[in-house]
Amino acid sequence: MNGHIETQKERRPLGQREGPARAMTETTKTHVILLACGSFNPITKGHIQMFERARDYLHKTGRFIVIGGIVSPVHDSYGKQGLVSSRHRLIMCQLAVQNSDWIRVDPWECYQDTWQTTCSVLEHHRDLMKRVTGCILSNVNTPSMTPVIGQPRNETSQPIYQNNNAPSKPTAAKILGKVGESLSRICCVRPPVERFTFVDENANLGTVMRYEEIELRILLLCGSDLLESFCIPGLWNEADMEVIVGDFGIVVVPRDAADTDRIMNHSSILRKYKNNIMVVKDDINHPMSVVSSTKSRLALQHGDGHVVDYLSQPVIDYILKSQLYINASG
Questions:
Q1: DSSP bridge pairs for 222
Q2: Consecutive H or E run containing 261
């Protein structure tokens, strides 16, 4: 599935590493890019808080480092009632994250000729990051072979350093800086397809260096309402669910004090890959957990001043200027 040759015995929980136990350092932790798919109609403060809460929780576990977040608005042909055009939704998303130094908006899904499945969006970003960073993103079921950033295009048996006088390996901070630069380049614009090779700026001219190995994964970020939709018969393609939960993994931010354990027990696939589902367990009464796009649209239609609690001011200003949702229903 997804081009990976795997057996059931190779499947392992998210963040679990093989080999002898060792202290978790920057390079031994799993490096994560969080991807959120949705209509974002409009994007709310709750969506941004979902990213922040997920990142904080994953960092607290001591096993993960979140190095980027991607907002991917759904295609116009999704068919949802009251869905404004992708042009407006992309702009609102960009306004909502304009002050973030790690969350980006990606238009690829909107640029396609038709609606894309969540599975295909995940696979696109996995393959794109592979091309742009030169890093092979592992999925949650891959054994302990981790990607190498800065790996030469053609593999040879040459030693890691071609020059014996080359300085020590680049630090993880340099590695993540380069990945971050690439992430910012591929979001908000049509992505380039060229391959980048990262070379240590302190190395002698002509020296090819291989960077330290890090494990880099894209995880689907969602609310518990999306998780619950997995339990609705016929709504999701089961093969896609296997890929989303089994190959990639999910980070769930509960909404309205949802019982995620009960939800997972209602789906055989969710039960099967329960270890690949990370549930954010912080303050379940977080005020942003009840904020929704639906409530925001209703507040706009009724002139409710509480809309400032749901949407950031730049998004509100754009909605009023463009006269979005004001006279709509639903």
A1: 252
A2: helix 260-265
Cα 129 to Cα 108: distance, rounded to the nearest angstrom = 13
- For the record, the structure tokens of 63 come out as 């096993």
Q: How far is CA 236 from the centre of its chain?
A: 20
pLDDT for 93 beyond 80: yes
List CB contacts of 295: < 8 A, sequence separation 6 or more.
310
Check residue 11 and give its pLDDT. 47
- Cβ contact 47:295 at 8 Å: no
Q: What is the CA radius of gyration of the chain?
A: 21
- Band of the pLDDT at 277, cuts 50, 70, 90? very high
What spatial distance separates the first Cα and last Cα of the chain, rounded to whole Å? 39
User: Which of 255, 265, 249 has the alpha carbon at shortest distance from 223?
Assistant: 255
Q: What is the pLDDT of residue 283?
A: 64
Rounded to an integer, what distance in angstroms lies between the CA atom of residue 93 and that of residue 80? 18
Residue position matching structure tokens 């689907």: 220
Please check whether residue 109 is in contact with residue 37, taking contact to mean a CB–CB distance below 8 angstroms: yes
pLDDT digits (tens, 9 = 90+) for 231-242: 999 999 999 999
Residue 154 reports pLDDT greater than 50:
no
Query: Around Cβ 104, how many Cβ atoms within 10 Å?
Result: 22
Quick check: 119 and 220 in contact, CB under 8 A? no
Helix axes 172-186, 118-133, angle to 10 degrees: 120
Residues 2-20 have a mean pLDDT of 45
Length of the chain: 330
Is-contact 140 28, C-beta < 8 A? no
Asked if pLDDT for residue 98 goes beyond 90, the answer is yes
Element (H, E) at 278: strand 277-279
Write out the DSSP string of 87-128.
HHHHHHHHHHTTT-SSEEE--HHHHSSS---HHHHHHHHHHH
Angle, to 10 degrees, between the axis of helix 313-322 and the axis of helix 86-96?
150
Average pLDDT for 70-76:
96
> Nearest 10 degrees: CA dihedral of 156, 157, 161, 162?
-70
In a 13 Å sphere around the CA of 144, the CA atoms on its Cβ side amount to 7
